[in-house]
Design brief:
Blueprint: H1 2-19, H2 28-33, E1 39-40, H3 46-58, E2 67-79, E3 84-92, E4 99-106, E5 122-134, E6 137-149
Parallel strand pairs: 1-2, 4-6
Antiparallel strand pairs: 2-3, 2-5, 3-4, 5-6
């Protein structure tokens, strides 16, 4: 009986880990309630948000596999080498003199520009930070399950 309880508990933990950020609703508080979000940058002060995003950029391997929630401004840029758009969430410090950003990929069949918000719109993202090997380089992205307007 004791082994059965341990096995069931283990199965529940594995199921939560596997489903992670895969919820599709916009009830972002549900992620926090379930303990799924590893790093909630959205509630930090401006200088802390900026510092955290810079730290992620300088130490990306430390964040791979972590579920991150972030709020910032949407930005997109076209890369002629890859003939594709890169999408960013940009944050700034409180004085707005310094900015940093995270690249993200929005899961699903979303086409730019039709399915994306207008540039400089405040957005909230929740996703898993991942490493992707691309021709000639390694990139890190927040693979967003959820993209919604920020308040």
């Amino acid at each position: 009986m004791k082994k059965t309880v341990v096995v069931l508990f283990f199965i529940c933990v594995v199921c939560m880990a596997v489903t992670g950020c895969s919820q599709k609703d916009n009830g972002t508080d549900d992620f926090a309630d379930l303990g799924i979000i590893d790093l909630d940058i959205s509630k930090m002060s401006g200088i802390m948000v900026y510092s955290q995003v810079v730290h992620i950029g300088e130490n990306p391997a430390e964040y791979v596999g972590k579920c991150i929630k972030i709020t910032g401004q949407y930005y997109a840029s076209y890369n002629e080498e890859t003939a594709s758009y890169y999408h960013y969430v940009i944050v700034g410090d409180e004085a707005l003199c310094c900015q940093a950003g995270l690249k993200f990929i929005w899961k699903g069949d979303h086409k730019y520009p039709n399915d994306y918000p207008a540039l400089n719109t405040n957005i909230e993202l929740i996703g898993i930070y991942e490493k992707r090997e691309e021709p000639g380089k390694t990139n890190y992205y927040l693979i967003a399950d959820s993209l919604s307007p920020a308040e």
